[in-house]
Amino acid sequence: MTPAPATTAAPLTGTAADTGSQRDTPHGNLVDVQDLKVHFPLANGNVVRAVDGVTFKVARGASFGIVGESGSGKSTTAQALTRLVDPVSGSMSVGRHSLSGLTGEPLRLARKDIQMVFQDPFSSLNPRLRAGKAVREPLDLMGIGTREEREARVDELFRAVGLHPDAKRLFPHQFSGGQRQRLCIARAMVTEPQLVVCDEPVSALDVAIQAQILNLLKRLRQEKQLTYIFISHDLAVVQNICTHVAVMYLGQFVETGPVEEIFANAKHPYTWSLMAAALSPDDRDRGRERFTVTGEPPSPINPPKGCRFAGRCPFAQDRCRAEKPELRKMGKDHKVACHFAETLTPPLPELALAG
Amino acid sequence: MDPILSVRDLVVEVDTGSAVHKVIDGVSLDLYPGKTLGVVGESGCGKSMTALATMGLLPDRFRVAGGSIQLAGEEMTTVKPSRLRQLRGNAISMIFQEPMTSLNPLLTVERQIAEVVELHQQKSRAEARDIALEMLRAVQIPSPEARLAAYPHELSGGMRQRVMIAIALACRPKVIIADEPTTALDVTVQAQIFRLLRDLQMDTETAIMLITHDLGAVAEMADEVAVFYAGRSIETGPVAQILDTPAHPYTRGLMSCTPRLKLGAQAREPDAGALGEIPGMVPPLGRFPKACRFAPRCALADARCTHDAPPKVALNDAHAALCWHAKEEAFA
């Protein structure tokens, strides 16, 4: 399949009034999240603190990666931003939409500007809808454009994601996994959103297909001046597609900053452990001693009092177990939540040299 | 040294009702004691089917239609079911991808490990319990005594995969087939599991077949590599040769589309741009091209590639590729 040349459509005339784009302020922040908390009550009275106080801003046109292991709360953060789960506290705004208190019709209309691509392209498409209808449906539901305009827009999106418009009449099962993810991306882009939240969009795909989809997402962001929030467990993928990154552990950010800065100069032991665990096909020195952490993340039901990583951190001291480290500034735009960020020496030779 | 597991010209067919397709078409592999063979390729290339054929676990409508599989000199393709049951879990065992679904949710950890040794080694319940405890220690499960009584749902994914490994290793098998054993796990846990498998292998001289789509995992674990494409093994050789000087365009493509983590000073270098891409996808079963199966996706393909099946080209004693252009590629 050869990617069709992408074209930029004239903005669709919306019957859903007042959807004027705010792209005239390229340097402002599109996303502003303050102290977001998402808790899930359990039947036995306990509470799962999936997201436990997360604050971040994403500039227009940026691609903000959230990395962490399963249970870190990265997907829940993504779902909160699209209001697929409801936060218990904190505020979230995307463009002119203040999402936190939004309900009913205003929330539905806000979703025109905020779209999502999910991990599993098999379960995120309705098996009974033809591909063309699946991609067109957001336009139908939002009442955007005339019938002809919508069809033209769907054709254009099919080409933009590298599918032939003839494929519109096919059903999802007639597509491969990679093609289905292209459909999901086309569906997410069809309303001309400002923000696209991608939740592990390439994790279920083979490496060759993963590269195709990553390149596609990268190209679309540039062409359409989109803003991404990109959830992944894979550091190499995040480095490839993101401009900024937040490392998440047990419901909180432990380190944030521009990708160049984080990958050159990471300061948090948890970030180091993720970097050290990443495997590379170029590595011929596997006998060497790697920096590894033991154990697994503790339960988000009853998180440790001090630093949440202290139980697995080889550098942990009494202070770490007693006192929670705040996310604090360590140079321009780089923030770290570790009491000893200034004094620890990275156990990775590449980082130690860059210091 | 003789291989402990030797697969020769294996052919596996599936009868879809309307047609018979070759899922595996002439695959040969050797596993040596204490060594790891990495089997790589995209989904649908026949990696898992090769494993299942070796284990005698092919699903309904699949059958071995040719070739041989020898485990320590014993032919597995014609072995009686009763003998197969003696070998499976004993001389050869398998670790599956999904630790969530491959453990019995109704049995405790102790029962699931102990039943293997009770069955194969005629141990008493008490002896089997001791072995189960010893295995939990070997796979570094914290507080193993307490874990014996645990049910799978009480364990994390990483712990469940450790239990799977404990079951697979309980009878000290000569061969372990690990089918994407860490795909469902987090990277820090993956690092722990790989280290564990390597340490256990050093103690027991077990041969491991590691099935994976991750070239990073291959670099980390494998001694030898077989790259699969559309039911064939298209390139084989020592790990450093396969990854440093891949001869087959498909192997090269896989290398170029894998994103690399760049740390330290490298991370500040300007973005290298788009990842390499292999256009298109693995052809579906029954629509494999006649000559070179990779030709439709290959930048080097010419008329010969679409008309004549590619020869097996030896690049040296250890490294071979199924490609008309293999030599040009390796030395390009």
TrEMBL record, chain A:
Family note: Belongs to the ABC transporter superfamily.
* GO BP: peptide transport; transmembrane transport
> Which SUPFAM superfamilies does its entry note?
P-loop containing nucleoside triphosphate hydrolases
Q: Where is the ABC transporter domain?
A: 31-275
Spell out the molecular function terms from Gene Ontology: ATP binding; ATP hydrolysis activity
**Residue numbers spanned by region Disordered:** 1-28
Where is the protein localized?
Cell inner membrane
Q: Which UniProt keywords apply?
A: ATP-binding, Nucleotide-binding, Transport
Recorded GO cellular component terms are: plasma membrane
- The annotated regions of Low complexity compositional bias extend over 1-19
| Membrane topology reported for the UniProt record | Peripheral membrane protein
The species this protein was found in: Pseudooceanicola nitratireducens
Q: This chain belongs to which protein, by name?
A: Peptide/nickel transport system ATP-binding protein
Automatic annotation (TrEMBL), chain B:
Give the record's keywords alphabetically.
Answer: ATP-binding, Cell membrane, Membrane, Nucleotide-binding, Transport
Task: Quote any Pfam family the record assigns.
Answer: oligo_HPY
Q: Annotated Gene Ontology MF terms?
A: ATP binding; ATP hydrolysis activity
What's the chief localization of this chain?
membrane
The record ties this protein, via CDD domains, to: ABC_NikE_OppD_transporters
Q: Which GO terms describe its biological process?
A: peptide transport; transmembrane transport
The ABC transporter domain is annotated at: 5-255
Membrane topology term reads:
Peripheral membrane protein
Compartments, record wording: Cell inner membrane
A single GO cellular-component term from the record reads: plasma membrane
Which InterPro entries does the annotation name?
Answer: AAA+_ATPase, ABC_Ni/Peptide_Import, ABC_transporter-like_ATP-bd, ABC_transporter-like_CS, Oligopep_ABC_C, P-loop_NTPase
**Family classification:** Belongs to the ABC transporter superfamily.
State the PANTHER family in the record.
Answer: DIPEPTIDE TRANSPORT ATP-BINDING PROTEIN DPPD, OLIGOPEPTIDE TRANSPORT ATP-BINDING PROTEIN APPD
Query: Which named protein is this?
Result: Peptide/nickel transport system ATP-binding protein
Q: Which organism is it from?
A: Pseudooceanicola nitratireducens
